[in-house]
Please model this.
Amino acid sequence: MEHVLEFDRAQAVLTFRASRRSSGAAERPAGAAARLGTMTATIRAVAAGDQDAFAQLYTDYVGMVHAIVLGRVPRRDVDDLVQDVFLTAYTRVAELRDPAAFGGWIAAIARNRATDHLRQSREQVELPEDLPGGDPIQAETFAVLEVIRKLPEAYRETLLMRLVEGMGGAEIAERSGLTPASVRVNLHRGMKLLREKLGRHANA
Model:
């Protein structure tokens, strides 16, 4: 399993959702004011029951939410929890005072939902990754994912958004509410720490 612990290989096997992302993420209105105006209109439409507006929010933010949840809970539970997060956001969106804060708001919902889930399912045991007969590439992905899950939260979430969800630095900043500089720092430090941990595993 040594090849699982090579960083370049890890980066490759973790991109299993990136190909499903739309190229439309780069086609956003220019300027912070335009983006804020669009977000304000979208949030108001969702609060008024506009399903199309909610579908757009889902498309824009599902990658971030998936990454946050994936970094915390067993894989088998991730998709259901992501749906729960968006259902909660839909029913509570009228509580959101500042539309520009939507990214941080739904990220907090995702973290809280994952924490609650773990608290409620503490006695459940996830099957080990190295059961015979599994897909080697899938096993590699899961092994590296377990290493990333042990990283500090800021690095873990940013790395998963980048490596798993295929989000670029600018998109991570826009969705999460982090500054571009913070995203760059998190990615740089997270990658460095991941390399170190993978290297220690390889030499163990």
